[in-house]
Amino acid sequence: MARRKSKRPPAKRVSAKAKKAKSKSSKSGKQARAIELYYWPTPNGFKISIMLEECGLPYVMKPVNISKGEQFDPGFLAIAPNNRMPAIVDPQGPGGRSISIFESGAILQYLGRKTGKFYPADERGRVEVEQWLFWQMGGLGPMAGQLNHFKHYARENLDYAIKRYADEVNRLYGVMNHRLKDRPFLAGKYSIADMACVGWTNLWQRQGQDIDQFPHLKRWLEAVKARPAVKRGMALGLELRQGIDMKDPKVQSVLFNQRAR
Fold first, then answer.
1. Rounded (10°) angle between helices 159-179 and 141-148
2. Whose CB among 40, 150, 156, 199 lies 3.0–4.6 Å from 161's, allowing a Cys bridge?
3. Alpha-carbon distance 78 to 33, whole Å?
4. Same domain for 141 and 177?
5. 8 Å CB contact between 200 and 140
6. How many separate domains does the chain show?
């Protein structure tokens, strides 16, 4: 009887910080404990790769190929019950015990509290960050995502849907542009709110928007993208998407029109 081939585990990408931590641990006899980042190179995934890079935390990237349905694997669902990436497992969580976290906003807040970076400790400063973080999660991300779907992936052209979401993204760009008129970043200082928004606004051309109509947003986008950690975070795993046809019916059947399981 032929022997069944064992399923190969997904490829891992180890950050420079994780490699450095491993080198130090081998010398000291202690095991390195890098954060596991369950990830695919999308605007939502970029939020966490950017934050990990900005904070200098060692991490190991574990790809979740959403075009193949890996987000529905039981092992991943134990970490992210909404079958969406990103998610993390921090082996050095509260009390020194491992913790898994799903939802990008919750992960950003957790990492901000863990490191004390890019998420103020004082209540007023924290509120400034949180309101723009949740603005992204409730507005910019979902609206831009719907626009991207109907503009590029829908099997039939629906002018009403495209206009509906293009207008809303345009309105949200205007809100952001006005906010940035008299401050360098959304909450004044660079924060997790900016990290949450940069991946979505970076797609302004694909969204059919004219960035020159929003000069303060354009200035902000250029400033954020110029940060070395942002460059590294947004470059992570881009090669994984090569060769994937998002209009392939098999891919679309995995990504779209899913119902309760």
1. 150
2. 150
3. 20
4. yes
5. yes
6. 2
For residue 187, give the DSSP letter: B
Domain that holds residue 79: 13-117+236-255
In the block, tokens 């529905």 appear at 72
Q: Does residue 49 sit within a domain?
A: yes
The answer to whether residue 30 sits within a structural domain is: yes
Is the peptide bond between 9 and the residue preceding it cis, with omega within 30 degrees of 0? no
Which tokens hold the place of 81? Answer: 């019950």
Q: In what order do the strands lie in the sheet with 13-14?
A: 13-14, 59-63, 35-39, 87-90, 99-102
CA 219/CA 3 separation, integer angstroms: 59
Give the domain CATH number at 205.
Answer: 1.20.1050.10
Q: Which amino acid is at 1?
A: M
Q: State the pairing for strand pair 59-63/35-39.
A: parallel
Sequential pLDDT tens for the chain (261 residues): 443 343 444 556 667 666 665 544 444 445 559 999 999 999 999 999 999 999 999 999 999 999 999 999 999 999 999 999 999 999 999 999 999 999 999 999 999 999 999 999 999 999 999 999 999 999 999 999 999 999 999 999 999 999 999 999 999 999 999 999 999 999 999 999 999 999 999 999 999 999 999 999 999 999 999 999 999 999 999 999 999 999 999 999 999 989 998
* pTM of the complete model beyond 0.85: yes
Cβ-in-10-Å burial (0-12, 13-18, 19+) of 205 comes to exposed
Using the structure block, give the residue that is written with the tokens 């979740």. Answer: 64
Return the amino acid letter for 10: P
